[in-house]
Amino acid sequence: MRYCFAAILTMLIFGGCVSSTPAPKKTVVKQEVLPGWVLHPQSGGALRAVGSSPVNFQGTYIQRLEAMADARDKLSHAIKVYITSVFESRLEANGNELTHESRKSITELSNIIMKESYQVDAYVANDGRLYVLVEASDSTIAPLLKGVKNTAEPLKAFKTTPYNPQALRESRCYDTDTLNSINTVSRLYRGRPVWFYRPNQNGTIGSIGIAEKEEGGSYLRQKHTAESLARSDLAKRMRIKIDSSHKMTKILQHGELGSLLDKEMHTKSISKVMHTEIKDIWMDPKNCELYVWMVKK
Q: Cα–Cα distance between 76 and 48 in angstroms, integer?
């Protein structure tokens, strides 16, 4: 009996101590704050759209292509809605309505303008998802905007850090001499060069080529691949501009929509000569991908 009483007393004493211990604090995970344009791309009336893509096992270049394609698909719809509303308001003023043929032409115009769109910003989330902001070309859309001011909010300045080559030297992507030859000029934002996010800066037309390191392959071969991708992208943009100019002229000269637009749309001319320049180069020390930033002179 004495032993039973002692056991009960012990349980009460230690049980009371355990129950009085405060519960551990819950870890609060801070939610990532995405740029404002991710949720509101058309803030200020700009014809913009956002596309995104998760991490792709084929590399950053393919991930970026998928995000751009997603953004342009959404932009095409936004452009079509906008152009339709502009034309409808102009025709209603004269007591007219859009015909089936005009609506068909608007769809064609929307696709043309969408193809000329370009990247104005990007963001890589903590989980690796890439967000890309694209915008309709001002030179193409301007005639449709007569009397309408584009009050797009300016992009916020990045909080950048200087490039530190030490991380690349420790990566062992290539031999030391090869790694030392990669002279990155740009400052970094979230671990990548500023131009990865904003390749079109200060009125220049820029493109990005990204090449993965091939097993057993040389650095020169990887660099050649990245340069070829960047140059091909620039050339494609120029071909699209020339092709778009011809198609728009055909639509507007032979359709009823032409009378509603400014005449400069009909006389848009683009030089077929293209001179390019490599502005910067960067290698990701985490996965040895090589980035090349090329611009049109």
A: 10
Is residue 271 within 8 Å of residue 239, measured between CB atoms? Answer: no
d(CA 182, CA 212): 15
Locate tokens 């089936």: which residue?
A: 100
Residue 208 CA to residue 172 CA, distance in Å, equals 24
Structure tokens at 68: 């751009």
The secondary element (H helix, E strand) that includes residue 177 is helix 176-180
Handedness of CA 235, 37, 282, 162 (dihedral sign): positive
Rounded CA-CA distance 120/197 in Å is: 8
3-class secondary-structure state, position 272: coil
CA distance 198 to 131: 12
User: Per-residue pLDDT tens for 33-77?
Assistant: 899 999 988 766 678 999 999 999 999 999 999 999 999 999 998
Give the sign of the dihedral formed by CA 67, CA 69, CA 70, CA 71: positive
